[in-house]
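Format notes (please read before filing issues)

Several people have asked whether sequences and structure tokens are stored in separate files. They are not. Every record keeps both together, in the order shown below: the sequence lines, then the token lines. Line labels are part of the format and must not be stripped during preprocessing.
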Amino acid sequence: MGEENSIKLARCNGLSSEGPVYFCIFGRLHLVGMATFPETDETSQYAHFSIAGDCVYEGFCDDFGPMNLGTIFRFCAILEDQHRLWRNKSIALCSEPDGKSLTNTVFLLGVYMMIRLGQPPSSIIGKFEPLREQLLSFRDVSPGEQNFHLQLEDCWQGIWRARKLGWVDFTPTGFSYDEYVHYDDPLNADLHEVVPGKFV
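Then the structure lines:
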């Protein structure tokens, strides 16, 4: 397996041996767990960015994810903008180091790799194996003890299946972000099309 197709550990120049660990996800993109990060200049090894204020899950109770299609679409756009902005640098996606934030970030990365890179869930799961102990299962909105665990793999398999059926299509004619956000609002019915053309 090539270096760009596996997670590797790398230390950011200028940080101590106890500094954050940078996981290479694919190509120039790395994932790092840190709440704050240095500004990027011409001497920086990494161009750091965060999605903390842009990709937010609005929970009902104790639930924390997974993210909906509107957030996935926005994440894909942000990530592609970062690649265009920093063509000559490694890119570091900074996630809050807590389990919930990290799990949502890994979910979005996995979906991006499926939708934009065409990689199946079976090849994505192993890329995040070093982080498995830090990742959580998603839960129902109900408080209290859960009797099931929705894993990242389950969510990725669902997105992959929907992609193959043409239900997830982020081409210009296949998805309207503005329309999705409008109907996702509880004031506008919180309406979602589960099976296109058949079931909402």
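For reference, the curators noted about this record: The chain has a mean pLDDT of 87. DSSP finds five helices and five strands in the chain.
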